[in-house]
Succinate-semialdehyde dehydrogenase
Amino acid sequence: MAIMRALTKHLKSPKAFGDLASVDGSTNPRAQFAVHNPSTGELLAQLPDMQAADVVIAIDRADAAREHWAALTARERSDILWKWQQLIVNHSDDLAAILTCEMGKPVAEAKSEIAHAAAYIKWYAEEANRVYGETIPAPSTDRRLIVIKQPVGVVGAITPWNFPASMVARKVAPALAAGCTVVLKPAEQTPLVAGAMIALAKTAGFLDGVLNLIYASDGIAIGKELCSNPKVRKISFTGSTEVGRLLMRQCSDQIKRISFELGGNAPFIVFDDADIDAAVDGAIQAKFRNGGQTCVSANRLYVQASVYHLFSERFTERVRQLRVGDGFMPDTAIGPLIDSHALAKIEAHVNDAVQKGAMVRCGGRRIGSTGTFFEPTVITNVVGSMRIAQEETFGPLAPIIRFDDPDQVIREANDTIYGLAAYFYASNLKRVWRVAEALEYGMVGINTGRMSSEAAPFGGVKQSGIGREGSRHGLEDYLEMKYLCMGGL
Ligand code: SIN
């Protein structure tokens, strides 16, 4: 088991993270899996490949730590979360470098993600102290009705590869703040930054068993154990709708609590009263942040006929300027796609659209014969029957669809099984309210292309998920409500 020089050469103080390849409770240290840099193909680490039996051990440890952790005062839990947050801030350059190595995103974006992760931990260190109950006026004088909030128990947290640091913080911090203990399974493509964050958590003083890490290549087997083990009381998952359905079925036997943040198919609508330059800026953000690999990426750009030409020209010009390359190069705006499957999907979407009459305005091809780089791409003459108009691309491909009727565009925007994020640009206040209320989405960006924040409830409706992360609502998802009825008074 080892961490390779390809990773450690980027770190200022690798010792702060201990031996990233060592993990508590691996029963078969000879089973390993490899983590590669998607930009260079270099081997970064060989990690223990933990199995379902190891997950059982981790769950037992989390269960054993549960009572003690829940019994601490909110302030005591909060203090440890603060220390963890501070350590993450102090080591943010190294954490960002690990993230860029294993995921490929530009290092400036990686730094912003680490700052976002720290912001979630800070937020929940504060929220830990504000878990309020209720007293309810009783219907008779001899009774008192009270509601208290208690931690759900052991939480299984399964995090994705596209935001491998902030998604850990977004799940783990509220769970710990609420008094839950956690078994964390980061994505097999990007486990290292999670491992580094957990190493810092240990330094911060989390007690043994409170936060348990599972390195494993077989996410399905690990998910099955987490969902079927009765000691786990809740699953929090971010990933595809397809895997969400599987986990939900597995949780149903025990009526386990779930919080799911799943796939999206975000519309981005530009109305004729929009500030076009602002809309172009917003579309660049909403489409190309993280190389288009976010659940809230603008997947379909609808532009009203009278501003279609102007918007398409200015947007395409901006996209042509986006530099693709290794995340450590200073002018890189877009890194590699996560793997060859992602590359094949975006190519298939482009080919399908072109065959059905779409026009490639820029990009459209992979870069180089090896690696997973793809040109930032704009396609026009897009119609609803094309795959790009219906499926989540998860890559740097922007299809532009012309519309005439503002009512029809809302119907088209809502015509999907997904309901995570939508965006629109308009200036008329009446229109702004009407459209914001009519879009069937958990989050709507109005004249902005970016809305993720620790202070706001992130999550979707329809088949995009259940529950919310961030804000005070994100804490509620890790708390049970208990009604106390005191009689005979
Ligand atoms: C995502 O979950 O894909 C997006 C996360 C974010 O925007 O913070």
About this structure: Residues 162-163, 166, 238, 261, 294-296, 452 surround succinic acid (CB under 6 Å). The longest strand covers residues 144-151. The longest helix spans residues 107-127.
